[in-house]
Amino acid sequence: MPEALPPLWLQGRSAVIDAADAADWREGVPDYHLSHTVMPAQRTTEHAPGSLEAIVEGLVQVFEMEVSHKHDPAKWVSMVADRFRTRINGGPWADSAEIADRGSYNVLIGDSVFYGAEDFRSSHHVFHEAFPGGFYWEVTEVLSAPPSIAFKWRHWGAFEGPYKGFEPDGKQVEMYGMSVARVDDDLRLLEVEHYYDPNAFLGKLTRGCPVTGQP
Fold it and tell me: What is the rounded distance in angstroms from the CA atom of residue 149 to the CA atom of residue 22?
């Protein structure tokens, strides 16, 4: 008897893409070929298939894909959309409807002098332009098991495109943080709290100052 597959949201981005309808996507099917061709050589961790680290990393990658590219929260399989909420550094909570309207970048960066107001579309354009070679994410350590999963992560990419008028230096930019995800019995996300310093990351793109570029 063939082994049963895990739930769709634990099968990875490709499986979720294959299961989605064409109308689910904001601007067509997302392309993650760089994650398969570039990211493996740049990551700092390797997780055994089926390990908690691999499961958490895959689930968060599916979540990021859905909130970035699927316009209707009811089609987000990685979470319980009518219960989901998220926040950064103990700030105000945002539910799935707000994320779909404002965009995850705007929600998770918060109020920063190095960023400024953007709408959903422009927020994605800003970072896709700054990191044309990809902006990757990996789990570096899982500290606790479900239902409250605490984990550390690394986000990185080469600053090779302009960021809000600041010219790139071509250097790799890294940021580190920690998150706590509460999940249901099926490992769908109920809430996620992120802890990191967005200004430390964004300041690297502006040389420390949002106006003059001077430290």
Answer: 32
Closest CA to 19 of 27, 9, 28: 9
Record the pTM.
0.93
Q: What letter represents residue 183's amino acid?
A: V
* Helix, strand, coil % in the chain, rounded to nearest 5: 35, 25, 40
- Describe the strand order of the beta sheet including 189-195 as a list of residue ranges: 94-95, 85-88, 189-195, 172-183, 148-158, 135-142
Joined tokens for residue 47: 């997780």
At 128-138, the pLDDT tens digits run 999 999 999 99
Q: Is the dihedral of CA 181, 68, 87, 202 positive or negative?
A: positive
- The tens digit of pLDDT for each residue in 42-79 reads 999 999 999 999 999 999 999 999 999 999 999 999 99
